[in-house]
Amino acid sequence: MADNLESEIFIAAPPEQVWSLVSDLRRMPQWSPQCRKVIARGPIRRGTFMLNVNRDGNLWWPTRAKVTDFHDLQRVAFRVLDNGTTWSFTLTPQDGGTVLTQRRDVPPSGTSKVSALLVDKVLGGEDHFEANLVAGMNTTLQRIRAAVEARSAQE
Fold it and tell me: Taking the complete model, does pTM exceed 0.90, yes or no?
């Protein structure tokens, strides 16, 4: 069964600067090694539908998602309609900066049967797939930190 996953990073910038980047989910392809395109219907806010195009090596697949949480300067989350997982970014002010946490939460019933089958048969199995997801989460957070801190240094 799929596990909840989490990664976090400290960013030497206030939550306002971090939020301005992570709250625009259309920008995910700039940071995520797996996400290649995000098409959102309207502005990013609670209820916004998105189509995401993902890639792992030579494998490409679309996912549909809906923004489920959008609290200014605090948290943005979206549920992947195809597998039931919820992805989120949470901002926590700390020591003159911000701790940015990215999570993937799996519902108690697990991911969809189709998703579990594809992960097992096409994406290398749950352990391999989740290890890649955690590595991708770490990369995503490092890229967001670099972008925020570079922008902060210019201001």
Answer: yes
